[in-house]
Queue: 4 jobs
Job 1
Amino acid sequence: MDTKIKVENLTKKFGNREVLKNISFDVKKSEVFVIMGGSGSGKSTVIKHIIGLLKPTSGKIYIDNVDITSLKDTELIEFRKKIGYLFQEGALFDSLKVWENVGFYYLENTKVSEKDIYNLAKEKLALVGLKDVENLYPSQLSGGMRKRVALARAISYNPEIILYDEPSSGLDPVTSAMIDKLILKLRDELGVTSIVVTHDLESAFSIADRIAMIHKGVIYAIGTPEEIKNHPDPVVQQFISRSPEGPITEELMKELNNNFKK
């Protein structure tokens, strides 16, 4: 299987704080690659680098063998057309109707007629299981419906890659399972390459072709769901077993004590 995305020795510092520490991984074409970890582990920071919202302190990111960290801003804007991005909270425009949210790229950047954009929005909404919502506003939708509208927008220009930032965050179990099913549907029917950032273990193990476990900016393990479940590293095992005892807890207590002393 061809490599679609390659992250090579990625390091990111904000001031003196090192958020990502020399991480490397690759994502195959049409693969669902899950980055799993706790809050503040650095997983969302990774995908912000892949879409070019952040520049690395050091390291390279290749998409289709192109080093996107070396692209000029104008080149990066053009390159981003390959990538759809599902924001954690959906990031819909409250003042725009659903169809305008889905077709926002076309409304702002093309001369496509509003009628054609409306029809395209209906088509993309149908792909994520939504009908007869085109003329509603986001405030009139449930949380799960808003997330699916955001996903319809992310696939509106037929991207080759979709980055999902906590796609099941804030959703009930049934709606979360529906989002998981949509991620797999886009892979199977459209050949989309997906990177999914999540701390939801059930979701991660149900959709992933491979999983990277990240903790405090370091990748501790990469493998299939079965390989991750059986991985010997104590950090990995504590996270997937949801245990209150282990190295993660010890690190947290040490940080709290240091902050208290300050």
Job 2
Amino acid sequence: MGARWRGRLSGTDGLIGCYSTQTYKHMNSGEGGLLVSNDAAVMARAIMLSGSYMLYDRHLAGPDPAEFSDIRYTTPNVSGRMDHLRAAILRPQLAHLDAQCARWNARYRAVEQGLAGTPGVQLIARPPEESFVGSSIQFLLLDWPPARVQEALARCARRGVELKWFGSAQPTGFTSRYDSWRYAPSAPMPASDRILAGIIDMRLPLTFSIADCEKIARIIRAEVGAVFQAC
């Protein structure tokens, strides 16, 4: 949320854009989310699904009541609406989203600059068409043996820097992979597997100061660099 590609906001391509507002997302209500669309029929159906009953005409952002003439008879109520408390938590965050995105990017750039040139570390090359939101940072330890990756992560953890790795054989925390999703069978993807085996991820919460991010980068640089040099 808040990112752009060639000036176009993410979530505005296609018929519907969906945003999570779960903990750690760019707007945080603990749980929940929202959707956007410029299609009146889609939004009318979403309002009915959300559990508006026949009070849809009270929805301040809803389409013209005529859009509900048939939908109201054919769409079930699944009570998927957001409660007022979560909406009240999100409204002021929406007003400050651009400023928050700028704060995340400042923290991202601090870590990125600190890691630049670290032996064995590949950073993301950001294309000029992209306006990203750096609420987390990823880097690549490409073709590192798993034991070396685990050693580097353990060394960072001992100094208080917790990194997530997508190369583990088992899903851990937020780092599940496509081959962990047994409810959606897939064919092997060796090229993707090679990248996943080296992806390291770390969130950059706004509770981190710029100085914190610079220190974190120094720790990662020292510990990952030391493991690489020993290879």
Job 3
Amino acid sequence: MRSSPYRWACGILLALTAGMAFASPPEPPYTVQPGDTLMVSVWKEPELHRPVLVEPDGTFSFPLCGMIDAQNKTVGQLQQEITQHLGRFITDPVVTVSLQKIAGNRVYVIGQVTKPGAFVVNPRVNVMQAISMAGGTTPFASLGNIKIIRRTDGGSQEALPFNYNDVIHGNDLSQNITLQAGDVVVVP
């Protein structure tokens, strides 16, 4: 028995949409954080090849550019910005910016965990991964009352609930969020 072109087309369409249903959304690009070290170089300008440290306020200084604001910018965006600044002094500058050291993308895990502390995450981790990095919970942890403390864009803080027991049993996985730089996981 021969299959009709209609069945064949429906089969292909079903296979394509099934694959898309399981595809996870792409990770957002990494944005530079205070404490990160960038390597900036300008082709044929050896005096403009140097590492720069992103200061606590999210800025860094580079010759002929002054202070550059790196807050919420990717390495590519910073490369374009430096190229524009240098274009006033150098004809067609070829600028390369690379992330030399990630030190600003830190999350903190405190409370009833084996090894509380600050953890540099590269590039991103979720709550369960952060607890694992801290050596797991102690027998005294209140697993149903874990909180993620996050600073909002307005500067205030919010507490996001996390129930370890739910997640470990595969329930309500939406609370196993990807942590952002500066988040504090509190395990009471």
Job 4
Amino acid sequence: MLLHLAETILWTSVAGLATSDTGNWPQFRGPTGDGQSTARGLPLAWSESEHIRWQTPIHGRGWSSPVVWGEQVWLTTAPADGHEAYALAVDRRNGRVLYDIKVFDVPHPQDIHKFNSYASPTPVVEAGRVYVHFGAHGTACLDSGSGKILWTRRDLECNHYRGPGSSPILVDDLLIVHFDGSDVQYVVALDKMTGKTVWKTDRSTDFAGCEGDYRKAFCTPIVIEVGGRRQLVSPGSEATMAYDPRCGAELWKVRYKGFSSTLRPLAWQGLVLIATGFGKSELWAVRPDGHGDVTDSHVVWKLRKGVPSKPSAVLWGELLYMVQDNGLLSCVETKTGNVVWQEHLHGQYSASLLAAEGRIYCFSQEGKTMVVEAGRSYKVLAESQLKDGFMASPAVTGKSLILRTEHRLLRVEQ
């Protein structure tokens, strides 16, 4: 059954977006949403004085990751007090700021956790348009050629409690966004041309006895195809659901004991890989061909050791790589969930992993990047150090890395 399903499940994270060979990196974790790049010739090591083509200071505080379309790099930021929300465009060639647009005034920003920012969701970009999201504080579409704001939505409400984190994605003509707050939890699809609601689906999770953090999530969904039918795989607190992206109908779900889910799911040969979130984080491999509650029937394996709460994992070949928040790097057999090796890196980790050219890139909150060889033996290829650290995940364009540190945006090139 698993082999048959592997032939029918396709990775289609965002339909219609270009591959990384074009130089575009249009959404959180790239063209396929999984942190993999087909680029060749990426830098292996760098420093403050080596292999930095340009660097641009970024005002405010924001953990959103950079996205790239053509010669533009987009990201969001906000002041530490959250009273304004900005979209920035930087010239990919030289780092010059093209647009610095105040999208929203926020008279009464919600409280956030000191670890979070008011600009943590990553934009999504396509030809001519960029979509920025600040959770309940507002969602907007901008003309990427002129910087003009085309539409906004500020009526999609929830109490983020610890601040927003889920990034929007594009599926055909829909912009899909998560709102998993401490009070309400729902997924909404907007017409990308007008911003009007096409469908809105409330989570079916039974939150009886759960309050605050135990209802929250920060995940970004993926889209897969199973048996010719697309599914939006959408993790939340206490459960992951799969929806029909055309109408929002729930197709299946798995239940678990985990909250504040953050990791973006992965798809591999008939399996969907889901992290359960904070608490005792686990990684579950689920067959996505079921209907209704499949918790007791479609979970193939569970991994309980070394599973991160914040940084998303990455696949390369038949192996899965993940770094725990405290720096424990694991290599796992994707088919079985068996651990191949585990090694401790120095530092704390929030940025998601990147895989390219048989290398796994790991970016720490202290500014160190460890590059290890993808394989069944642990081998460090390079270490690099910058003066400020990483909360945002990297982007790839051509032979360059676009890195956002706490205060800067950098283009790193061999």
